Amino acid sequence: MNYDEVGNLKIFTKTIYLNSLFINEHFALTNNSKYNLLHLAHTIAHEIAHCLRADYEPQEAAKHDFDHAFLTFGVANYILSTYEYHLLEHLAQLQRKNSTKKK
Ligand SMILES: [Zn+2]
């Protein structure tokens, strides 16, 4: 966790680091379901749940308990319901289809 100062206001920020294997999968360079778009959405939801807990319960932020699972479930459902997720899903299918075509 870090923060930026705007005048007298401190704006706390968090950085989520993702496994680079998600990039290989995104560009259809690999075919590993562990790093597909659905798994990426769940991973982001998992990490956002840690960030949310850090805001309200800093001592509990690293735990993988019921509250973390509940938050992860809610965030994942939100991500999976967005237009952007469905657009990325469609683009990923096109990318994979085009990457297997003979050139
Ligand atoms: Zn975790």
Q: How would you characterize the overall build of this protein?
A:
This protein is mostly helical. The chain has one domain. 57% of the residues lie in helices and 10% in strands. The protein contains 4 helices and 2 strands; from the N terminus they run E-E-H-H-H-H. The chain has helices at 21-26, 37-56, 66-81, 83-99; strands at 2-6, 9-13. It has a two-stranded antiparallel ribbon. A hairpin with a 2-residue loop joins strand 1 and strand 2. Helix 2 packs across helix 3. The model has no long low-confidence stretch (mean pLDDT 89). The protein binds zinc ion (ZN).
User: Looking across the biggest beta sheet, what order are the strands in?
Assistant: 1-2
Radius of gyration: 17 Å
Q: Give the tally of structural domains.
A: 1
Strand percentage lies at 5-15%
Number of helices: 4
| Helix and strand run | EEHHHH
Largest sheet: 2 strands, antiparallel
- For this structure, the quaternary state is single chain
Shape: elongated
Helix content: 55-70%
Distance between the amino and carboxyl termini: 46 Å
The low-confidence parts are: none
> Which hetero ligands occur in this complex?
zinc ion
Structural category is mainly alpha
What's the β-strand tally? Answer: 2
Keywords for this entry:
4 helices; mainly alpha; single chain; binds zinc ion
Quick rundown:
It contains four helices and two strands, in the order ββαααα. With 103 residues, it is mainly α. The protein has one domain.
